[in-house]
């Protein structure tokens, strides 16, 4: 085996620059949210935090029902995340390791649906939601996102690279059922990839703005992104108030990344094949 080469100093410089560029927008948002709105017009850049953060947090909760918005977003994003991981893992395993008539055609149909712009289905989907009586209810946001073509494609490719066909055949010869083989052979190998899908799905559901704005009542059942847009309304723009809400809204995503970030590294290291 070839000896492992140590990274040079320039690699650490580049990585430090990328890290600083990624973290700076979050830090700057926090710095602005800890000042009053008059500080935005100062000629000197706002690089140091002030002492008004908790005051601005209180103003956010006094201006909009932020607790309800966080609760609704957590319900929507968590339900969509769990459903996508479960259904996409089952479907991906079936497309990758099971043999049944029409498998390739069905997979091409699923993959092809991902190429259709979501905006084309907004009006028909809205009419269906309205006919079901779900307008203004969280079901209108949850049900359309229970499974995605991207999730099925991701887990199918993960199965191709991480789940050995020989292990599947060996388990079948030993008398294991399809469900038992899936649970004891495929699921342990797919955990890092499922965790990455969970992060991507949660982030997408949490940051979704257009569809919740269209089908939810912004006063009775808002999500975080909808109430953040309400903070920007008014006769003048209170940037300190807006960025305080944005800082609070990004905290759950950061917590999720801290919990599942190691699985992202494992998924990249395992080398999932995309073809």
From TrEMBL:
Parts of the chain that traverse the membrane: 7-28, 74-95, 107-129, 135-155, 189-206, 239-260
Keyword Magnesium: no
Subcellular localization(s) per the UniProt record: Cell membrane
Source species, domain of life: Bacteria
Main location: membrane
Keyword Transmembrane helix part of the UniProt annotation: yes
Any Pfam family the entry gives: BPD_transp_1
CDD domains in the record: TM_PBP2
Entry keywords, A to Z: Cell membrane, Membrane, Transmembrane, Transmembrane helix, Transport
Domain ABC transmembrane type-1: 70-260
Protein's membrane topology: Multi-pass membrane protein
GO biological process: transmembrane transport
GO cellular component: a single term: plasma membrane
Family: Belongs to the binding-protein-dependent transport system permease family.
Entry protein name: Carbohydrate ABC transporter permease
Source taxonomy: Bacteria, Bacillati, Actinomycetota, Actinomycetes, Pseudonocardiales
């Amino acid at each position: 085996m070839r000896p492992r080469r140590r990274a040079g100093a320039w690699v650490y410089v580049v990585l430090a620059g990328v890290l600083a560029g990624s973290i700076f927008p979050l830090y700057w948002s926090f710095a602005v949210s800890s000042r009053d709105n008059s500080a935005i017009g100062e000629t000197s850049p706002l690089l140091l935090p002030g002492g008004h953060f908790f005051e601005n947090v209180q103003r956010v909760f006094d201006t909009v029902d932020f607790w309800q918005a966080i609760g609704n977003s957590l319900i929507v994003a968590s339900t969509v995340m769990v459903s996508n991981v479960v259904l996409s893992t089952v479907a991906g395993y079936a497309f990758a390791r099971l043999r049944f008539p029409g498998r390739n055609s069905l997979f091409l149909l699923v993959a092809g649906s991902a190429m259709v712009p979501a905006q084309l289905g907004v009006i028909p989907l809205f009419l269906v939601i309205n006919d079901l009586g779900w307008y203004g209810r969280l079901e209108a946001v949850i049900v359309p996102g229970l499974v995605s073509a991207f999730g099925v494609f991701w887990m199918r490719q993960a199965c191709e690279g991480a789940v050995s066909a020989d292990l599947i055949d060996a388990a079948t010869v030993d008398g294991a059922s399809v469900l038992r083989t899936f649970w004891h052979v495929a699921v342990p190998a797919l955990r890092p990839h499922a965790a990455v899908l969970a992060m991507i799905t949660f982030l997408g559901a949490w940051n979704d703005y257009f569809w919740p704005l269209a089908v939810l009542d912004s006063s009775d059942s808002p999500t975080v992104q909808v109430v953040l847009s309400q903070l920007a309304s008014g006769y003048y723009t209170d940037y300190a108030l807006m960025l305080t809400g944005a800082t609070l809204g990004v905290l759950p995503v950061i917590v999720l990344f801290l919990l599942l970030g190691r699985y992202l590294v494992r998924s990249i290291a395992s080398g999932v094949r995309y073809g």
